[in-house]
């Protein structure tokens, strides 16, 4: 072993310690772990925020949908209430119509029974026929109980018959009473053609005389009476035999519902007018045209043109 003059035995060489590196690694690992933990926490927080946002959006959409449903239900409720009100009005109107119709039919039935009682002798002989159908009452009287052959003047017997019929008709309300004359198909005889050229004239004259008698002698209101003549053109039996022709020569009195409007009370009239006003469609308001620009003063315009030329 060689001698080294610089060697100092007091100095000893120690190996370097690994502790700092371990500590540094531990610090780095801790920092990495902490960073990862923070990152993971942020990710979780972000996901929670996104989930909360989605839930809030879903809740808002559900709220909007519910609001729309409520609005729709409110609209349907209003429409149903309106429909219910209209239905109630219709039911009330129908009930009123039914009541009025029932009253009319009862009155017509009473008239029918009254005529049947007063004219039972003529009905039993077949000189008068009564029929009732669909709110109409018809009384057919053969011509022989009212007129002499070829005549339009009511006979004494006819006055008695019409007097009893008229007494019943005078009590009838809200009915139009049409009196029509009918003949058979045989032409007017030559000795009567100067007075009645055709069956038209004879049938009309007989109807008019019956109407005048009912008004003047029986007190039937004239506004309810109507006279018409059909000649031979509305037969109810065959004109090929005497029996059929005798049935066709007749005066027909037909009672039908009145066509004249009834007077309406003030309160009902106001109500009807209010309902009619509600049902009126809205009026279209035309837009007023915009005011047109006033024409420029011609003198000023010409002056400007002159200056521009200069």
Explain this structure to me?
With 310 residues, this protein is of the alpha+beta class. It has a domain at 106-257: 60s Ribosomal Protein L30, Chain: A (2-Layer Sandwich), CATH 3.30.1330. 55% of the residues lie in helices and 11% in strands. It has helices spanning 19-118, 120-125, 156-169, 199-216, 242-248, 266-279, 298-309, and strands at residues 128-133, 136-142, 175-182, 225-229, 250-257. A five-stranded mixed β-sheet has the order 1-2-5-3-4. Helix 4 links the parallel strand 3 (175-182) and strand 4. Helix 1 (19-118) packs antiparallel against helix 3 (156-169). The protein is rod-shaped. The model has no long low-confidence stretch (mean pLDDT 82).
Short summary:
The chain has 310 residues and is an alpha+beta fold.
Relevant terms:
310 residues; alpha+beta; 60s Ribosomal Protein L30, Chain: A; 5-stranded mixed β-sheet
């Amino acid at each position: 072993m060689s001698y080294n003059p610089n060697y100092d035995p007091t100095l000893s060489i120690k190996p370097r310690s690994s502790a700092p590196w371990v500590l540094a690694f531990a610090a780095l690992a801790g920092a990495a772990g902490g960073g990862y933990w923070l990152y993971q926490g942020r990710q979780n927080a972000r996901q929670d925020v996104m989930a909360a946002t989605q839930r809030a959006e879903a809740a808002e959409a559900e709220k909007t949908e519910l609001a729309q449903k409520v609005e729709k239900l409110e609209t349907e409720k209003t429409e149903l209430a309106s429909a219910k009100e209209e239905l109630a009005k219709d039911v009330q109107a129908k009930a009123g119509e039914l009541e009025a119709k029932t009253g009319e039919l009862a009155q017509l039935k009473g008239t029918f029974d009254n005529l049947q009682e007063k004219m039972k002798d003529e009905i039993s002989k077949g000189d008068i026929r009564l029929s009732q159908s669909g709110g109409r009452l018809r009384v057919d009287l053969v011509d022989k109980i009212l007129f002499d052959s070829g005549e339009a003047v009511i006979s004494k017997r006819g006055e008695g018959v019409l007097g009893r019929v008229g007494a019943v008709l005078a009590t009838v309300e809200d009915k139009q009473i049409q009196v029509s004359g009918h003949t058979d198909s045989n032409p007017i005889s030559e000795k009567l053609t100067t007075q009645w050229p055709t069956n038209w004239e004879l049938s009309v004259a007989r109807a008019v005389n019956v109407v005048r008698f009912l008004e003047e002698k029986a007190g039937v209101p004239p506004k309810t009476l109507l006279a018409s003549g059909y000649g031979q053109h509305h037969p109810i039996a065959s004109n090929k035999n005497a029996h059929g022709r005798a049935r066709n020569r007749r005066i027909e009195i037909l009672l039908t519902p009145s066509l004249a409007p009834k007077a309406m009370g003030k309160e009902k009239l106001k109500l009807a007018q209010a309902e009619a006003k509600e049902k009126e469609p809205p009026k279209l308001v035309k837009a007023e045209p915009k005011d047109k620009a006033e024409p420029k003063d011609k003198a000023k315009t010409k002056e400007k043109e002159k200056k521009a030329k200069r």
